[in-house]
C-alpha cells in the first residue's frame, strides 16, 4: 500500500472552533451524510442535566459562583469526547479541550 493511501486510512480528528452561535453545529451536521465520519457536537445536554442540575443555566445566572464548577465539568465532558473511540476513521468535534481552557477557564480566573 502506498504511503498516501496509508495516511488516508489512519484515524484523525478535526476540531471545529468558533464563537458561540457562529454555526459550528450547522457546519458539522453537513457531514452527517458521510458514512466514514463521526460527529461529536458539544455535549450541551449533559451540561443542562448534571444529575438533575442545569449547570449551564447556573453559570449564566451567577458566573462568579458557578464558572469554576461549570468549566470543570465542561473539561471532563470534553476529555471524554476527545478520548471516545469511534467506528469511523474521521472524527469531527465541536471545540477542543484547549479552547475550553484558554477561551473560558483562564478568562474567568
TrEMBL record:
Gene Ontology cellular component terms for the protein in this record: mitochondrion
Q: Which InterPro entries match?
A: Deoxyribonucleoside_kinase (IPR050566), DNK_dom (IPR031314), P-loop_NTPase (IPR027417)
Q: Where is the signal peptide?
A: none
User: A Pfam family this protein belongs to?
Assistant: dNK
Cite the Deoxynucleoside kinase domain residue spans from the record. Answer: 15-107
GO molecular function terms here? deoxynucleoside kinase activity
Q: Which domain of life is it from?
A: Eukaryota
Q: What is this protein called?
A: Deoxynucleoside kinase domain-containing protein
Species assigned in the record: Aromia moschata
UniProt lineage? Eukaryota, Metazoa, Ecdysozoa, Arthropoda, Hexapoda
Amino acid at each position: 500500500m502506498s504511503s498516501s493511501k496509508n495516511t488516508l486510512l489512519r484515524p484523525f480528528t478535526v476540531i471545529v472552533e468558533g464563537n458561540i452561535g457562529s454555526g459550528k453545529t450547522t457546519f458539522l451536521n453537513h457531514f452527517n451524510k458521510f458514512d466514514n465520519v463521526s460527529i461529536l457536537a458539544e455535549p450541551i445536554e449533559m451540561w443542562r442535566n448534571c444529575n438533575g442540575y442545569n449547570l449551564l443555566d447556573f453559570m449564566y445566572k451567577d458566573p462568579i459562583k458557578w464558572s469554576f464548577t461549570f468549566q470543570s465539568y465542561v473539561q471532563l465532558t470534553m476529555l471524554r469526547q476527545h478520548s471516545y473511540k469511534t467506528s469511523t476513521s474521521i472524527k469531527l468535534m465541536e471545540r477542543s479541550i484547549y479552547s475550553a481552557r484558554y477561551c473560558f477557564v483562564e478568562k474567568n480566573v
